[in-house]
Amino acid sequence: MNLEVIRTADGSFTLLNSDTGCYYHSIHGALSEGQLVFIDYGLKHAIEKFNSPINVLEVGFGAGLHTYLTLLEASKQKQPIYCTSIDIEPVDLETCNKLNYPDLTDNPELKQNYFDIIKTEWNQTKQINSFFTLEKLKCNIYDFNYLIPYHVVYYSGFSHQATPEVWDKVIFEKMHSALPSGACIVTHCAKGVYKRLLKEIGFKVERLAGPPRKNEVTRAIKI
After folding, report:
1. Which of 25, 80, 139, 210 would bridge 53 by S-S if both were Cys, CB 3.0 to 4.6 A apart?
2. How many CA within 13 A on the CB side of residue 111?
3. pTM of the shown model
4. What's the rounded Cα separation, in Å, for the pair 101 and 137?
């Protein structure tokens, strides 16, 4: 992959794949988007609903921003979290080291945790700190096996236009069967075709206010 580091509107970095023209996060604020969609709408919802050790499934590790935000929230709330993050074409370590994600905190130990996350080997599980355990799997969502109950799914794949294959109905039917009642999927995607698909499968679909320069995002809850 030919990846270029881009500073977004809120000062946080994202990556541009110059081969495909795809950005890994919103250019209007990578941090703003990740915090709102995946932490505020996803992780916090799961913590409030289940009030127990939380299992997170992240579809699309990328450069580890959303994984790191999850660790920061786990550490802040002293909430045990087990995070399984999958990716089929991971960003290389050298590129991850160029990003400014450790600057999200002043705590030296938490800064180091970002590097612990990106250095964790693929297809391995590692306890990063007292509250956060990471399992990194190099696989695609089609082949993923739901071996534990996930309380929240971060669906952070590329856009519906760029990668229509990762928005296939079969994926979400399998996900619906595997998730416990009350679990949710959160995503930046707000396409009508995607929301209708989720409703047909049996999810309760919520339209939520989006991050800067995006009207809405989607949360789907298994009822």
Report:
1. 80
2. 9
3. 0.96
4. 21
Tell me the pLDDT tens digit for each residue of 136-145. Answer: 999 999 999 9
Which DSSP symbol is given to 201? H
Taking phi over 0 as left and psi of -120 to 50 as alpha, with beta for the rest, 97 belongs to alpha
**Residue 13 tokens, joined:** 């970095």
Which of 13, 11, 70, 15 has the alpha carbon at shortest distance from 44? 70
DSSP-assigned letter for residue 141: G
**CA gyration radius, the chain:** 16
Q: What does 20-34 look like in DSSP terms, one character per residue?
A: TTEESS-TT-HHHHH
Q: Tokens at residue 189, please?
A: 């995607």
Three-state DSSP class for residue 98: coil
